[in-house]
Amino acid sequence: MSTSQSATATVQANIPVSLRLSRPAINAQRLNDTLQLSCQWGSTPDGGMNRLALNDDDARVRRWYIEECQKVGCQVTVDAMGNIFAVRPGKNQGPPIAMGSHLDTQPTGGRYDGILGCLAALEVLRACHEAGYLTNHPLAAIVWTNEEGARFIPSMLGSAVWAGVKSLEFGQSRVDEGGVSVREELERHSFLGVRASSHQEIPLKAHFELHIEQGPILDTAAHPVAVVTGVQAFRWFEIKLQGRGSHAGTTPMHLRHNPLTAFCEMALSADQLAIQFGGLATIGRVGSLAAQSTNCILDDIVFHLDIRHHDDDKMDQLEAAVRVSFAQIAEKTLGVRLASWEALTASKGVQFDPLAVDCVRNACKAYPKQEIISGAGHDSVNTSKHCPTAMIFIRCKDGISHHPSEYSTREDIAVGGSVLLDAVCRYDSTV
Ligand SMILES: [Zn+2]
């Protein structure tokens, strides 16, 4: 046997029998068309999406998604948080290898964040069904409830309850700005499942998530796809500054108790400290509890601070520095105090599973090498606590996300779908 013959024989021997039979392939046209079709529920005139978790449009797309999964032989389970598990049987019994993401969006969201991951999972199931391809392990598509946290705070709520990070009681009792709870909405839409929302009740063999990058790294590098090796840590806080409202015309500048002045300094300080520590700081929500008027000094300011870092120790240092700085600013601002500082949610940095990441890495081999630590939190952070997890990113135009102009090309979507299918099949044949 020549050297090249023996090399070929070795490669063949390494490919499991199941992979040598009619290997499934992604139908790029169908994936793209179905993704756009699913955006009929919640689309906005500017081309974006407004499909807040568990609103009527979210319920419609969920029902449609379940039907599509059932058409390709899936058994569907909905848990007590409304998380959807569509499972296609494999040769063996046992927990499924899952492909999960979310269908809810920001109020000014785009058509790809989360939606891509769910629709690519459906396409993988369709491709397997069409090819008559049976994986060793069952395969699952998962729709996690309220990933965005735009309607019900905090984000990644459905997967957090499944992972035991939050209790069911906590998850179901979250309310939106109108006082409507998660549980009420689950009941109204008949998505209050009887199965416990728990990684013990519904275990997973692994979790793969395809997602748009939501940042500019891939677009800048002109690379279509990336291996995601982990997720950076983040913490959210709600901070209240108490001053004293008074008349804009009669209160001299040097006698004002103006919380807005302190707030502006804090916003600048947060920016500077984030740069200093190599992290990120964002104030994305700001308002006042008191009624506002053009000729009144504000009584109070309430704002949300989001800080992130890929290193947990540096994250501690960044938070400590921000706390010291904000306290100093409040102290030197006449009549203004830091009335409260509430931690809303926190997530530690995550390193994804080496084997699952390796499957993604090998599935990406045809493309330029690109590895990323995710800047955004994802449901995969929660699944990684209980099963091997990995993520795939595809490029999005100008790195824009959470905005109607969020966009990924049809070609990149096809690449993402193919890499997801390949990575899942590789994992299936390895474990
Ligand atoms: Zn997302």
SSE blueprint:
Layout: H1 3-14, H2 17-20, H3 28-38, H4 56-71, E1 75-78, E2 84-88, E3 97-101, H5 115-131, E4 139-143, H6 157-162, H7 168-173, H8 182-188, E5 206-212, H9 217-221, E6 225-231, E7 233-242, H10 259-277, E8 280-287, E9 300-309, H11 312-332, E10 337-347, E11 350-351, H12 354-363, E12 371-374, H13 379-383, E13 389-394, H14 410-430
Parallel strand pairs: 3-4, 3-5, 5-13, 6-12
Antiparallel strand pairs: 1-2, 2-4, 6-11, 6-13, 7-9, 7-10, 8-9
Helix pairs in contact: 3-5, 3-14, 5-14, 10-11, 12-14
Summarize this structure as a short list of keywords or feature phrases.
nine-stranded mixed β-sheet, Alpha-Beta Plaits, Aminopeptidase, 14 helices, 431 residues, alpha/beta, four-stranded antiparallel β-sheet, 2 domains, binds zinc ion
**What is the highest CATH level, the class of the largest domain?**
Alpha Beta
Q: How would you sum up the major sheet?
A: 9 strands, mixed
Taking the alpha carbons of the first and last residues, their distance comes to 31 Å
Structural class: alpha/beta
Helical proportion, percent range: 25-40%
Report the β-strand fraction as a percent range: 15-25%
Number of helices: 14
Rg from alpha-carbon coordinates: 24 Å
| Record field, number of beta strands | 13
Q: What is the CATH fold-level name of the largest domain?
A: Aminopeptidase
Number of domains: 2
CATH architecture classification of the largest domain: 3-Layer(aba) Sandwich
Unreliable sequence segments: 1-20
Globular, elongated, flat, extended or rod-shaped: what is the shape?
elongated
Question: What is the assigned CATH homologous superfamily of the largest domain?
Answer: Zn peptidases
SSE order:
HHHHEEEHEHHHEHEEHEEHEEHEHEH
Mean of pLDDT: 94
Distinct small molecules bound, one entry per kind: zinc ion
